[in-house]
Every structure is written in structure tokens, then in C-alpha cells.
Amino acid sequence: MAKPENDTFIRALLRQPTDYTPVWMMRQAGRYLPEYNQTRARAGDFLSLCKNPNLATEVTLQPLARFSLDAAILFSDILTIPDAMGLGLYFAEGEGPRFERPLREEWEIRSLIAPDPDTHLRYVLDAVTQIRKALCNQVPLIGFSGSPFTLACYMVEGGSSSDFRQIKTMLYARPDLLHHILEVTANAVTAYLNAQIEAGAQAVMIFDSWGGALSHAAYQEFSLHYMQHILAGLKREHDGVRIPNIVFTKGGGLWLESIVESGCDAVGLDWTIDIGEARRRVQGKVALQGNLDPAVLFSSPDIIAAEVEKVLASYGHGHGHVFNLGHGISQFTPPEHALALVEAVHALSAKYHTSQ
Ligand SMILES: Cc1c2[nH]c(c1CCC(=O)O)Cc1[nH]c(c(CCC(=O)O)c1C)Cc1[nH]c(c(CCC(=O)O)c1C)Cc1[nH]c(c(C)c1CCC(=O)O)C2
Fold it and tell me: Which fold has domain 8-352?
């Protein structure tokens, strides 16, 4: 399959030379865009939007029509896997995700089965195929999944949580049960990401949004270990083309060295770590993605450009940097400020890519 006309993002993930620093934004298709809210209203609700490949394609392309982003990301959610496992996902208005049947009883946990993506997650694979067609090879498409630990948080808590009381109780009192959930989920994620790659995803990202809530030892045992297992089973090539992967543990700056050893191509960083320090610590073994504080986008175009420059300067001269926010873009971001970010990255980064 032909490589994208703009393959800057893929090249940066593989630490190859590029003329500038590529940029995309986590949650780039979302509620800060009025056109997203319109499509979502047509779908009825968020989950129906995810499950309709035509509408998922439409919203995936919306931010690309406004900004010259260097990658598209599949419009979906990390919770499609537990939904396909039969937990009954729904979104209560204004309250975030919920499960009708959270995992609590041992028999429920023991009967958990990894869904076959070709049947139970067909709508996601159809969206990937359709988005690739609509992109006409202009920029690469990123596929994604949640990490097993992050998915387990929602599956056990039954929704979002501020203290992770249920899952941490299980972690300390019944680690065997949590390990079972994580093992089944890791197998599900591996099959799901490989199916996305087969359907046309040109890079894949694992979102470990809650790994940072764990203790040092528990992170290695309950989150990183299972991401490592996924990375070992991931297709690294499709049709002769390398498919790079990105691991993003929010709050994972402390564990950078061990994340690097997991076998990933790139590490996503939240805004709490200095990207120059992160670069020194990873010793050229992986690319880095990040890491502007999304709250910077509430300021003004001038301030945004100055903050972009700080991140670029901290990373410094050379390759292997994909610019991104340190977490998803807020729904309260003015779209013109997202535009200012993308333009600033392109305008200010070229000087860091000249041959020295
Ligand atoms: C934890 C998590 C979820 N989903 C996701 C994560 C990991 C990333 C992170 O840490 O934020 C990942 C995700 N969710 C969504 C994407 C789409 C791709 C993209 O543009 O980046 C991606 C990559 C769409 C979405 N997923 C969701 C929305 C908003 C839904 C809406 O339209 O009402 C979008 C655009 C809903 C969602 N989905 C989830 C939550 C907690 C919520 C509610 C959040 C909120 O209300 O702000 C679970």
C-alpha cells in the first residue's frame, strides 16, 4: 500500500529525519468543534456516533478540514472492548461512561472472554477502512486502544472514579482476580489492535490514562507488564510497511526508563515532565510525543506560540519528536486557539530540523 503523501508523523515516530515537527492533538475530534456537536446530535448520542462508520468517518475528518494536522485518529472510544465483552456501556448525560454490569463477582470475572474483533467490533474495523478511503492517503491514520489496566479501572469501578477504591481493593486483596481480568483484556487488546492494523491503521497508540494512579511496584506488575505483553504480540509491519506504536501512561514520567524497555517505538508524555529531560533519559531509544499543557489553549494565540516554542526548544535540535498536548483537548477550547497551536508548531519547528 502506498505511503501517505505526508508521512512526517510516521517518520518522526521511527526517529527518521523530517523537515519540521509533526503535530496532532489527543481528542482532536470532539466537543470543542461546533461541527462535531452537530454530527453528534444527528447520531443521537456519543455511542451511536462511534457505532456508525459513516458518521465516525465524518467526525474523524472534521479537525483535518480546519487545521493542517499531520495525522488523523480513528474516532471511537477505549471502552468499545468492555462493551463487546458484554458489560453494557452507556453514557449518562454529563456523567461520563458507565457500565450496566461492572465486574465484581468472581464468577463474572472467571467467565470473561476476549471478544473476536471481526464480529463484535466490526463497526470499528469498518470505520477504519472507510476513514482510510476518505483520507486518500493524505496523512496517516492512528488506531488505538486503552491499556488493560485502564480498561479494568472502568470495568471494575463501573465508570469513572476519583479514588479507584474498587479496583485497588481487588489489586491488594485479590490480585489473582485482577491478573485474570488483565490477561483476558491484554489478549483482547492485542487482537483488536492487530485487526485495526489489518483494516488500515498506520500507527497504533495505547492509552494508559490511569496507570499513573498506581504505586511504583503496582505500575510495573499491573499496567506495564500487560502493555509489554501486547507490544510483543503486535504486528510491526503491514503490507511491507512499518506500523509504529506509542505508549502513553498519564503520570508515567517517573517510570520513563522502564516504559522504554517495554519494546515501544514512542512514548507519550503528559505535561508534568520537561520534554528535554525526558529526551535525555530515553537515550535515543524511542521517539517522544507531547507535551503541551492543554490548558495553554485557553490563553491567546501569542501565548500559545510562546509556549509551543518552549516545548520545541526544550526537546531541542534533531528528530524523533511528535508534538501533541499532554492530554486530551478540553471541550472549552476555542477552535481558533487549536489552529494557532498547529500553525505555531509548523512555523517554529523547522529551525530544529536543519542539518547541523
Ligand atoms: C479514558 C478514556 C476514554 N476514552 C478515551 C480515553 C483515553 C484518553 C484519555 O485519557 O482521555 C480515548 C478516546 N476517546 C475519544 C477518542 C477519539 C479520538 C480522538 O479524537 O482523540 C479517544 C482516543 C472520543 C471521545 N470519548 C468521549 C468523548 C466525549 C463524548 C461526547 O461527545 O459527549 C469523545 C469525543 C467520552 C468519554 N470516553 C471516556 C471518558 C472518560 C469520556 C467522557 C469524557 C468527557 O466527558 O470529557 C473514556
Answer: TIM Barrel (3.20.20)
